[in-house]
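User: I'm new to structure prediction. If I give you an amino acid sequence, what do you actually give back? Let's try with this one:
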Amino acid sequence: MKVLRLIGGLDPSHGGPAVSSMNSIIATQRAGADITFAIPLEPTGRAAIEPAIARLEQEGVSVITFDCATGFEKLFPGWGVNPKLASWIRQNRQDFDIIHCHGAWQMVTLLTSLFANRGPATALTPHESLTNFDIAQSPNAVTKFLKPRLKARFLKMFDLFVMSSGLEARDSLPENIAASPRTAVISHPVYDDMSRHLSARTEMPTDGSLRLGYLGRLHPKKNLALMIEALSKLEANVTLTIAGTGPEEETLKAMAETLGVTGRINWLGFIQDKEAFFSQIDLLVMPSEYECFGMAAAEAIVDGIPAIVSRETGIAEIVERHGGGIIIAPTTDQVISAIEKLLDRPDQWITLSEHAIKCAEQALSFKKHGEATVEAYRELLVRTEKH
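Assistant: Good question. You get back a string of structure tokens that encode the predicted 3D arrangement of the chain. For your 387 residues, that looks like this:
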């Protein structure tokens, strides 16, 4: 099957969708799809994403880039508006069996919806953008007005929605679509099983200490304040390493000072070396108000690090099925309770680490993602009879 994948930009500094979409493309190409990836370049140009392009091409993916459309990025930031790419899609879309878009609020997604009844089958991986939470967080009145209307169009026109979790599906789609063949729940591919061997952690610190970790944006929805408050009520040998930046940084630092735990927190800021970060922690804590998936917790699980996650995260569904962590309500008391249980039972931490590796192998590998996506494609083509 020939598949055209589209996204508004691949700059890795944008985080989540750029990285997970590239991993998904590699995984799906390996599983048997013939993928062409067309992307508009951002003002930083091709050099910024050259390593990503080289990796995709090494996997057999055909990558086509289009120079940055001067001026459009300022008028429509983040939408990947590019007239040359739009023209190319119009001229070449019939060469493919499936057009698969990443992200809802993108030029390529709107364009694909306009052609949906006159071409290949269509698929959309929204990366949280269709959720009620995302729409409610729209930064201005214009996007808050446009997004529900565009969403209504996408729900009508796209043949398949690929969701990272059941939580995302329920919060993004009407029940009649979420429970239908038009929706496939497929976890993001987190680790490359062809190049990485996983192993559990076998030793917890013997001095009774515990190194907590947080990785992500410092945003109110992440509930990092709960962790700092919990830290102030836990024994002094429990420490916290925080990797990330964001609008709540100064507020959180002031809170840590007030609660007297500044000396027990290591603020790393934005990091690129995640391996170094994971080597510094024993437990990843993600008490978020909401996460469609929870990539930081998934990456910790892959590294054999148990994760404490709130129930309102997509990764909680995987932990519930396969183990590797503790699911909590996002409250200070529950964070404290989960941590104290592990302090009292270090053998339980080792068991959780072992379960984390099994969880990763069962649900988070490139192989599992690729196989599930190709199967969803096959069912899509049978259902739409567009192959």
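You can read the tokens as a compact description of the fold. Here is one thing that stands out. The chain has two domains: 2-189+366-384, 210-363.
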